[in-house]
Amino acid sequence: MDKDFKQWLSENKNLSENTIRNYSNRLKNKIPEKMKEINFFDIKKSLYNSSIEELLSIKKMFDLNKHGLKDWNKSKTIGTEALSALNYLIEYKNNQNNQVVPPLNQILYGPPGTGKTYNTINKAIEIIENRKVDDNEDREELKKQFDEYRDNGQIEFVTFHQSYGYEEFVEGIRADVKSSEIKYKLEKGIFQELSKKAEENYVGSKKIENKLTLKEKIDIFLNNALENKIDFENFAKKTTFKILKITRDNIEIEGRRTKEIIRLAKKDLEALLKKEIDLDSISEIGLEGFFALINNFKKFNFEDNHTSLKTYILIIDEINRGNISKIFGELITLVEPSKRIGADEELKLRLPNSKELFGVPKNLYIIGTMNTADRSIAQIDTALRRRFVLKR
Fold first, then answer.
1. Which residues constitute the domain of residue 7?
2. pLDDT, tens digit (0-9, with 9 covering 90-100), for 184-225
3. 177 with 166: CB under 8 angstroms?
4. Whether 352 and 338 share a structural domain
5. Does residue 91 sit in the same domain as residue 139?
6. How many CA atoms within 13 Å lie on the side-chain side of 151?
7. In whole angstroms, what is the distance from residue 315 CA to residue 53 CA?
8. Domain identity same for 220 and 195
9. 375-385 as b/e, with b when 16 or more CB fall inside 10 Å?
10. Is residue 207 part of a domain?
């Protein structure tokens, strides 16, 4: 994108080559370095792949002179060029966005071997990064970006087949056979899990720090640590650990030396922060992990590290091979753009097993693929045809 942006500056802003080169340097190096210095956790390696929301957050910090950014921009080494470059990049991205608005629900279709599943990587990155992926971009780098978003929980992938159902996709009762006694428990499916995660982010992005609950602060803190691979120091043993995974109930950490995976309960972290727990109920190794987390939690600046709006992607391969009525059930209505959480006609339905209210937020995109050799376009489920944009 750097090349396209510099060409746009040259054609539309009548700037010298030297100024354009300086602007590019500020966006690729100077501003990201400064953002890292002040611990602005949303920043990426360069600003070109950041969303407009992230760029506007940085601009607001400049305007309010937070962390002395306005003064830094006026320094001899920067020469007011950082903010100017940032403003031009926002204008450039706005122009690009006016040209392409991705649909919330789309299906890529075609005969076998035409690269439908292959292209879902490009489509996902285009939606998340709010840009157009060029044909000449390095495939390995794109795949690496895709995998990073997937590891961070922003992308999920599932394949439909004739045996796939509501229980796997939304929620269902599963048998737990780990012990000698068979127990049954209710488990969330991939669609509900991703929708809940996207909804938490959507709601959190609209809150300011003094309105955040302790639980919401914990989620912001943990997600920031996971995404930025932050090291936590265990003072007792002079070792460090990172958060490997965050589930609905647990935090999984791994020590640098032992490589042992330890699970810490989120509810115990919340109780420790509230000072409402008996320390004897937690193992010594668990306490060491909790105290390291709590030490960093108390230093965390929630004002600067507010929840920024993220985009989430659910990729459904072979979407036409599944029984849509059986898999989505009554929830097919909720994927309509007008029924999404945050839309004017927002709608939530109560799930039959958990009895929880459930909705699909408007920051969750669904990309399906369809092999036309299995079933013709004319015969696909009417529910899909009404709610999804079909693309070759």
1. 2-99
2. 889 999 999 999 999 988 887 776 545 678 888 888 888 888
3. no
4. yes
5. no
6. 12
7. 24
8. no
9. eeeeebbeebe
10. no
Provide the b/e sequence for 307-332 (b: ≥16 CB within 10 Å).
bbbbbbbbbbbbbbbbebeebbbebb
N residues, the chain: 392
94 and 7 both lie in a single domain: yes
- What is the reported pLDDT for 379? 54
Q: Are residues 83 and 119 in the same domain?
A: no
pLDDT digits (tens, 9 = 90+) for 303-361: 655 567 889 999 999 998 888 989 999 999 999 998 999 888 899 999 999 999 999 99
Residue 380: C-alpha distances to residues 170, 266, 329 (Å): 22, 43, 16
How large is the average pLDDT for residues 110-119?
84
Is 208 within a domain?
no
Q: What's the structural domain count of the chain? A: 3
Q: Distance (Å, rounded) from C-alpha 325 to C-alpha 333? A: 11
